[in-house]
Design brief:
With 525 residues, this protein is mainly beta. Helix 2 (40-48) packs across helix 3 (50-63) and helix 3 (50-63) packs across helix 4. The longest helix has 14 residues, at 50-63. 25% of the residues are buried.
């Protein structure tokens, strides 16, 4: 890591910068020095197997660092780069008998494996010895050639092996130990394929385990305690009726012969869509680097009772934060505090909200514009227009030096920062004022523990009605199309046993102006 490096900065100035990327020039120089060393072995290897040569250089650099107590258990090596140590280690290894490289066992089965390596012109003979790990007796085979096939091995057993090389005037004895394990262990699947786009259903696939005759698949919403379990004879699981905009976790277990089972494996996760405009729409994202936020950046944002403090990173994605709930027809205090180094300059702060939820910030959706100010605190009001659609949508806040920012046109001349947030618009106050009394919604039991019923009564028929349920975070968790007659009670049962406890809002959209019906229900455990 480069620490307090004095370097050039914006506006014809200089500054001190720290960061891991500033160590890169030193590493590049060290690699170049090692490649230029008088070592025929490295030169030959670089021509025959460039990847192996690169890995050798990497190992020389990492294994020959200078230990430093302050870096123990902090960095991977516990020390700092020592080029001379690495160079001396390279020259010592460049003897008259260069070692074998690219040593690996591939094509492993339950009782076999194929050993390969890369040799060189100096090596005249190779001996091999191997044994099951824990055994004291070696099996030695002289004068082997690559590839060498291990056969008649035991199932699910770890083996270790060593190689001895003979050159014209010297020998490299059995020293470094390598290992591999045969297949056939009763273990959980490790390679899993998860679709990138998931709404209410999906198919999870995994690579077969040789010893398995079947699999147990369990899944649940993150943060809940109850697993849903599937027993699968094949390498896939078909999941249905998933909650919208919910993160799920799942695990796999192998069922093997003799009634044995593996433990459940690592936890995998996926998230369903239908989260609303804020997360589902493809908003443009600015490629503003942290270097462009060195002089000025967004230190904190406050909207009503919500506040967030952040560091300088060019672009801040805070769409995972919750708590920005705004009502149409209302105004909210808005404050952005700027972090800066040195002196103050003229800055702009602009905020947009995607009010129509179309996935872009239109010109009329600017909700705050500070104009040019030589200040570090920018305050004002954000107003949500009457009639703004309900649901989650995105807000973008931009800070820029000396020029008014736009939503999607940052360049290398942009100095400042952008941040994105999810907000939830609540239009209940405007929608319910004009509800017809004949339009009714009854929810029972309320509170509920597992499932609940909804009775719907409309004054006029609605052949394309939509019943929706939203959680307190503004995420839609249920949606169903209904053809509703007029002046008739229609009962709808909603299965909600997998929903987290909390308050939920129900909305019936009839497709007609000023005829939405709203309700609330509370889930308890």
């Amino acid at each position: 890591m480069g620490e307090q490096v004095y370097t050039t900065s914006v506006r014809s100035s200089y500054t001190l910068i720290s960061g891991t990327s500033l160590a890169a020039p030193q590493i590049v120089g060290a690699v170049g020095l090692l490649y230029s060393a008088p070592c025929p072995t490295l030169s030959s290897l670089a021509r025959r197997d460039p990847e192996a040569a690169t890995l050798w250089i990497r190992r020389l650099l990492l294994e020959n660092v200078k230990p430093l107590p302050g870096l123990q258990n902090v960095t991977a090596t516990g020390g700092y780069l020592h080029v001379n140590n690495s160079l001396q280690a390279l020259l010592q290894a460049c003897g008259a008998c260069p070692p074998l490289v690219s040593i690996a066992v591939r094509n492993i089965t339950v009782n076999s494996g194929q050993l390969s390596w890369t040799s060189n012109d100096s090596i005249q003979r190779v001996d091999l010895r191997f044994r099951a790990k824990g055994s004291t007796a070696w099996t030695t085979i002289e004068s082997v050639s690559a590839p060498f096939n291990f056969t008649s091995l035991s199932v699910c057993t770890e083996y270790e092996y060593q190689l001895k090389t003979y050159c014209r005037n010297s020998t490299l004895d059995f020293e470094e130990t390598f290992s591999f394990r045969t297949d056939g262990c009763c273990e959980p699947p490790e390679k899993v394929t998860i679709p990138t786009s998931i709404v209410s259903s999906t198919i999870i696939r995994w690579q077969a385990v040789t010893a398995a005759s079947g699999y147990t698949f369990r899944y649940r919403p993150v943060g809940t305690s109850t697993w849903s379990t599937l027993n699968r004879p094949f390498t896939s699981a078909n999941l249905q009726n998933l909650l919208a905009c919910t993160e799920y976790e799942f695990q796999l277990r192998s069922e093997c012969s003799g009634g044995t089972s593996s433990a459940f494996g690592k936890v995998f996760t996926f998230k369903t869509g239908n989260c609303g405009a804020c997360l589902d729409k493809a908003y443009c994202r600015e490629a503003i680097s942290d270097d462009q936020a060195n002089q000025e950046w967004i230190h904190s944002v406050q909207i009503g009772n919500f506040s967030n403090q952040s560091s300088r990173n060019g672009y801040g994605d805070f769409t995972g934060l919750k708590g920005i709930d705004l009502r149409s027809g209302q105004s909210y205090a808005f404050t952005v505090k700027m972090g800066f180094t040195g002196q103050l300059f003229n800055e702009y702060v602009v905020a947009w909200i995607d009010l129509n939820q179309n996935g872009q910030f239109d010109q009329h959706e600017t909700v705050y514009n500070s104009g040019s100010k030589k200040d570090s605190i920018f305050s004002g009001q954000i107003s949500i227009p009457m009639g703004t659609p309900s649901g989650p949508t995105r807000m973008r806040i931009a800070l820029r030096y000396n020029s008014e920012p736009s939503t999607c046109s940052a360049t290398d001349r942009y100095f400042g920062e952008m941040e994105d947030y999810c907000i939830t618009i609540d239009a209940i106050s405007t929608a319910t004022n004009d509800l017809k009394p004949q339009n009714q919604m009854q929810v029972f039991p309320n509170p509920f523990a597992e499932n609940f019923m909804v009775n719907l009564t409309l004054a006029e028929a609605a052949p394309k009605a939509q019943l929706e349920v939203w959680n307190a975070q503004g995420q839609q968790v249920y949606a169903r199309s209904l053809a509703l007659p007029g002046n008739t009670v229609v009962q709808e049962r909603i299965e909600a046993n997998n929903w987290p406890k909390g308050l939920y809002l129900l909305r019936l959209r009839t497709g007609k102006e000023n005829s939405e019906v709203w309700g609330k229900v509370l889930k308890v455990e």
